[in-house]
Amino acid sequence: MVVLSNPTLEEMFLVKVMKTSGPFSNVPVIDLTSATAAADVVSACVEFGFFKVVNHGVPNALVSRLETEAMKFFSLADCEKEKAAGVANPFGYGNKRIGSNGDVGWLEYLLLEVTSKPKSFNFLSEPWATSFCPCLREYVSATRKLAVQLLELMAEGLGMKQRNALSKFVMDSRSDSMLRLNHYPPFPMRQGFNQSINGFGEHTDPQIISVLRSNNCDGLQIALKDGNWVLVPPDQSSFFINVGDSLQVLTNGRFRSVRHRVETNGARSRFSMIYFGGPPLSERLAPLPQLLREGEQSRYRDFTWAEYKSSAFKSKLGENRLGHFEKQQ
Ligand SMILES: C=C1C[C@]23C[C@@]1(O)CC[C@H]2[C@@]12CC[C@H](O)[C@@](C)(C(=O)O1)[C@H]2[C@@H]3C(=O)O
Ligand SMILES: O=C(O)CCC(=O)C(=O)O
């Protein structure tokens, strides 16, 4: 006799009916060595708030080294991961619980605060972490450099006189940046249960720019302007870039902060690493005056990044956090 097992409550909680319109075959590709890169970046940010970068200059060997180190970390027992990194609050090791508002996803992660101090990440002081910490530092410096290059191209493409008008926020030694390593383990598919699983629910990134790299496992989806969700074909040798809420504000809504989510099919293990470049906490978030056309009003109330970040972190996935700061037209 075959006994069909029912999904557990936990499994049912993770199942979401997520409609998509199929693969996104036109992901804008920015070649950093191309003469049209500045204009291409701007049109991708206006249209999608999302693009892929090739010829990015981040060594593949560094990316693979960090992936290996991170997978070594994720293969430890939960108690060891918690002991090494602390239980996420919001920084540290987290498992299935995302943020502090009851959101869940089929993933485990390591969320790290990026500081300018050379000893950052040293709290991972276990003997097995000796090669992990320097690798994290090297990776952050390479992806931050890429973020700076892209923000400079954006400023150029927007016709700004100061090349560093946008990049200065993430170059500031007080920049509130983060690094996140996500591991979406295979899902134990059982008979009678073959749904897609919610890996990381719908959200926008609150920061300025996010530099994302994943292994060759699909799962990332983005929302287009018309509200349709599309699947982003994976590409482990490129970086995917998200415009964050803060960049949407700085450009007075010209650039779109992209809604995205991760759905895992459970069969393979997805691994992603993301550098989030944010402004210093004391920075006032308002459209850059150089970008306002004559007579154009700010679409947003004036607020600080600290204020926005705390409201963004208090909210649940799927909520439009920026809406709170939008002026009624
Ligand atoms: C549920 C949440 C997790 C998050 C904070 C939030 O309340 C809403 C935004 C989430 C997000 C998405 C981008 C980054 O991964 C993150 C670190 C961030 O800055 O905002 C996460 C937050 C988190 O995981 O704590
Ligand atoms: O894992 C991914 O590809 C994206 C995850 C994500 O959006 C996040 O960590 O904020």
UniProtKB/TrEMBL annotation:
Location of the Fe2OG dioxygenase domain: 174-279
Superkingdom of this protein's organism: Eukaryota
Extent of the signal sequence: none
E.C. no: 1.14.11.13
Pfam families: 2OG-FeII_Oxy, DIOX_N
Protein name: gibberellin 2beta-dioxygenase
Catalysed transformations (reactions): gibberellin A1 + 2-oxoglutarate + O2 = gibberellin A8 + succinate + CO2
Similarity comment: family membership: Belongs to the iron/ascorbate-dependent oxidoreductase family. GA2OX subfamily.
Listed InterPro entries: DIOX_N, IPNS-like_FE2OG_OXY, IPNS-like_sf, Iron_ascorbate_oxido_reductase, Oxoglu/Fe-dep_dioxygenase_dom
Keywords annotated in UniProt: Dioxygenase, Iron, Metal-binding, Oxidoreductase
Keyword Oxidoreductase belongs to the record: yes
Claim: Endoplasmic reticulum is one of the keywords in the record: no
One term of GO molecular function: metal ion binding
Cofactor requirements of the protein: L-ascorbate
